[in-house]
Amino acid sequence: MHWDRLLLFYLWVAPHLLLGVIAALLWKRRLHFEFPVFALYVWYEIAEFIVLFTISKTGLNQNWYVRIFPLTLAISAVLRFGVIQEIFNNIFGEERKLKALARISLRWITACLILGAILVSIFAFDQTSNTLIAGAAWVGRAVAIIQCGLVLFLFLFSGMLGVSLQSHVFGIALGFGILSSVQFANSAMRAGELSGSMARVLNLLSTGGYHIAVLIWLGYLIVPARKSIQPPDEPVMCDVHHWNNELERFLQ
Amino acid sequence: MSAVAVYIVIAILLVAVFTYIAARRKRDSLNVDKARSSMASLDMEAFRNLVDPEEDAFLQSCLPTDQFRAIKRERAWAALAYARALSHLALEFSRFGHALRHSPDPSLADLGREVASGAIHLRILALKATGRLFIAATFPELPQRSPRSLFEQYGRSAGLLARYGALERARKQAL
User: Fold this and answer.
1) How many domains in chain A?
2) Domain carrying residue B18
């Protein structure tokens, strides 16, 4: 087996094994109640891998693989949107006013991103291949633009309002951000006619990006939820006296 | 440069941005000194005066139009600096509140939630005031509304922090 095939095999199998660890961790920490869509996404990815791996390795009709692959990608993309929505609800759900503001902003930004994705597809129509994979890549690029934009907006919006993200929420969002960025590059390159070696490199890119995303999710789940910022004991007391004085001065 | 190369550059930039966000979060810490100096430098009475519509009306009645516009513009720019400082202070309050939410003491954790919630509201109001003041600085002839809710929210947030001080004192005396 060539090194690239071996590496590709590793990058195909390993993230899904790690997803099994993530699923177990979510179950053990009862986080599947807090993040049901993310838990569903993890289980779905594992099931999808088992189906595709079985078809690929058991010598079943390869047409099945070609038919099932785009379908699994579509379901995966839909679930990712669900996870992003879930992260938004988790971060901004506690505050009624903030939730309303976040919901309106999210709608507008989604509308803008969809418009942007359509414009990119129309004005940068560089698809030279008519294969199913190229078509899927063309759609995948639009989806990656929207997902990437939503994750970026989530970070900017929460940072702008000073909303601190719990460790695992941050990890899930960061993983999706990196994954969407890699998929954006990957799908943009796949939209054209590809040579055999280029296709192999792109396979490594997409599976490698996925592996990194899974490692990020796992890392932020394993590391105990960071108590975002520890309030210092004594210095803050001094500050509060100071703030109190300022308040008294303000109220006079 | 081909379209594909542009996409790759964008994707690399996006990965870099996400990595930067992750790295910045790691080194983020509660900067109490910064909050203290921001609080000390914030003269709320001066800020209130700068955005007082009655003060504006008085100046308008006393000064010729051109002079009034120039002064109103200068006042709006000065008020804008205050609004920005208040906006940064709200961020510090928010981070402090979020940190307090993890306190093992339930009363402190509840207070932390209130502080964080108030700080977010303060931040939104400060950003809104910043936008309005920017418009006022650009178009001084437009009438200006006093950001009363901003001052009220600042008072509430500062009050919550004073409550934290009282709670901490009580906790320390009980030990």
Assistant:
1) 1
2) 1-29
